[in-house]
Every structure is written in C-alpha cells, then in structure tokens.
Model the fold of this input.
Amino acid sequence: MILPSGQSLLDRLMNGGLNTGVFTHVYGEAAAGKTTFALQFVNAVANLGFGSIYINSEGQSPVDRLEQIAEKEYIKLEPFVKIFVPKGFSEQGVLIDDLDLYVRENTKLVVIDTLTKQYRLALEDKKTNYSNHRELNRQAGILKGLALQHGLAVLVLNQVTARLDGLDDFEPVAENIMDYWSDYVIKIKIGRTPGERILKRLLPGNGTNEGKLFLTNTGFSTEPTIEKE
Done:
C-alpha cells in the first residue's frame, strides 16, 4: 500500500508516497524540515482514515506544528494519532519493543522523531558505547520487522554529524546501522533562499530522485511562503 502526502513533487520523490512494509530513513540538519516531512504524512494518513503512532524523542511537542499543517485543532486528529514521549534511550527501546501492542487494524504509519536523539545522549557515557551501538541496531531491526509483519510504513527521522572525509557537509548519525535496515533513504538539505529545501532520494535510485521544495506554514510546497520547522 502507498500512503501519499498530497504534495505531488514530494510523492514523486517517494515513488508515490510512503510504502507500507518499508523502512524509510530521512535525515538532515537541524531545521531542515524532517518533522514537517513526517507530519505532512501523518496528516495525509489521518485524512485517509488511517492511524499513526508518533514516537517523539526530540522534547518539543509536534502537536502545534501538526495543527498548522492540518489547519485544524488536534482534538479532531487525536483519534488517528497516538503520541509517545520516551524519557531516555532505554525507555525508547522498551517502547519500540511494545509497539505491536499499540498497533490497531487501521494503523498504517509509525514515525520515530528522531531515532538517534536519545542514542547520542547515551553515547556521552563512553563505557557503554558498544552496548548502545548494539541497542540502536536492535531497535532499528525491530522497527523493520514491525513494518513487514504488520504492513506498516515505518518512517525514521535522523540527526546528522559532520563528515570526517570532507567530501560532503554532513552524514547521518549511525550511518552504517541505518543503511543496513533502510529501504528508502531521503536526505534534506537547506537551500540558499528562505525556506528552500533540497530533497534527494538516495535509495532506491530509480525515477525522479531530487527536487526543490519550500517549507511553509502548511508543510512542503513548490512555492515559497513563510518558513516554519
């Protein structure tokens, strides 16, 4: 099943939209529009009568931004959107372990915003780095299995870090782990004009794989207005 966003260029970049049974990895620098990307699909999925599970590890609630994109109060979306807020990396793992308990017949989308926020905080304790790498890999694997077993679109947002080889401006956090599990990979870069964003599909490589969009109050658009993350 394909879940369209309703934005034609974005959907073309995604080969029609988010695919169920698939692990989609979206990364970009702060304020690039990763949350907007996710919430545009959450709103579109709700408009189709399907449900989403949204795991928010970023701290700031996505509700205000979702209301902007949907142009309606959250109370009207609440039956279709279940939001969880893990307090740490271990709690995030427990929540991901238990996700199948929250999946309902109409659930079609799971968003993790972002998978690596709590992971990076956990890495501050150098003694546990190896176990944290293994745990992140385990969480990603469970999410991939959830997508396959329940026919869900799993959308994982990711932070970035500077590249060491100097060949590019940034790379996704835990790139090797994320590449292993991902079916789709989308990179979002901040453009040169206000609100401009360059979205590039790195995986799979078929069809239209790059486009320019603008962040607006109601999500991504082909026309610039007011920038909003």
Remarks:
- The chain has a mean pLDDT of 93.
- The longest strand covers residues 196-203.
